[in-house]
Amino acid sequence: MNQAPIIVLVRPQLGENIGKAARAMLNFGLTEMRIVNPRDGWPNPSAGPAAAGADIVLERARIFDTLAEATADVSHIYATTVRKRGVTKAVLTPEAAANEIVHAQGRSAILFGAERSGLETDEVAVARSIITVPINPEFGSLNLAQAVILCAYEWSKHQGLESPPKTELDPPAPQEELDGMIDQLFGLLDQRNFFYPPERTNATRLTLRNLLTKPGWNSLELRTLRGVWSSFRDRRS
Amino acid sequence: MNQAPIIVLVRPQLGENIGKAARAMLNFGLTEMRIVNPRDGWPNPSAGPAAAGADIVLERARIFDTLAEATADVSHIYATTVRKRGVTKAVLTPEAAANEIVHAQGRSAILFGAERSGLETDEVAVARSIITVPINPEFGSLNLAQAVILCAYEWSKHQGLESPPKTELDPPAPQEELDGMIDQLFGLLDQRNFFYPPERTNATRLTLRNLLTKPGWNSLELRTLRGVWSSFRDRRS
Lengths: 237, 237
Prior knowledge:
The structure is a homodimer.
Chain A: E1 6-10, H1 15-27, E2 33-36, H2 47-51, H3 55-60, E3 62-64, H4 67-70, E4 76-80, E5 90-92, H5 94-103, E6 108-112, H6 121-124, E7 129-131, H7 144-156, H8 175-191, H9 198-213, H10 219-231
Parallel strand pairs in A: 1-2, 1-6, 2-3, 4-6, 4-7, 5-7
Helix pairs in contact in A: 1-7, 5-7, 8-10
């Protein structure tokens, strides 16, 4: 349950792109990369620098001669494609695929084709489902690492990472503190005849109260504002 | 309704990264880029090749000297950060932010800081909310274009969807109206030596700016507040 998918790069061309894919993976907690028949052999000296610190992914990457060997122990194979194909397979978004993967029994793998040409038809054929990123129909230009990062990102949403760092937001202050701040302001404004003429006083006070209630300021913020009001006290008094 | 967010690159360093950000945007249908004070000037000959065909984004990109000018017409500003900060703002995932943006009235903008350093504290201060990508706590290494693509991708998910009923709330005023209100208050407080001593001035101004940014006041509310500030003008002057 909730096993991380294996990222399978099929015939990748540039070591730099392998490194970028590793970086994309590790950002979202994926660590298992398999590489089928890399054009320039392995290890590739261009991969490390592009990984920007995600060396562990490259060090653990396993190299295979064929896609069949790379996926021999995998139960659920997804093939990423951008082009529409005549294949009769389910086409999923990265989001839907991630949702399947985290609930699947057995290992899952996501296949990514060569940078320029993508996966071949016979490579797509080994997959039960296709992942296609819904993209601008007038400009589709996702590179390998970007396709990887979107799949990894969607998977990560199901992990503990989901919650962003807790916000330290203080709750709005109790009403009496808000009222105290408003009363202080109203007192000052009274001195300045802000509420003149009398027939407008209530409406103006209501408008101000509404807009000062809207923020939900916390206690500290209210104290800050009271300091501001205090600085406006008439100096003659 | 459902307006596309503006992508604001603040002090980007490399033209190549500006190009990659443009490519990331257009993949998911975003076309409006604003650039604040690019380190190497503009146009930048490295941007075009990296855009990989997303030239229209670069051609239409608008350059600004300051973040204030770049966001003057924006009602909802989001700041992307990776580090935890002591700021008291809501922290959203790209997904949650996209959900807000598509339902917002008024333009939205997402700020991205310089490649190496990210957004400065005073740049984050102009935003009402923070976007943080939940990332591997042991390896966080998102580059600029990757951060852009995740935000654009999440926004794009809402594009074929039905728009929900409009809310009747006035949208937050454009940023320049908020800035005008804040500047007026700061001017008055300066006269009152509110910001004394000098070594506390910046911190106090930042605190006030943050709490005055939080409400998302509309234009009418801001005019009301400016009336309040005016009543505090020194009578002797």
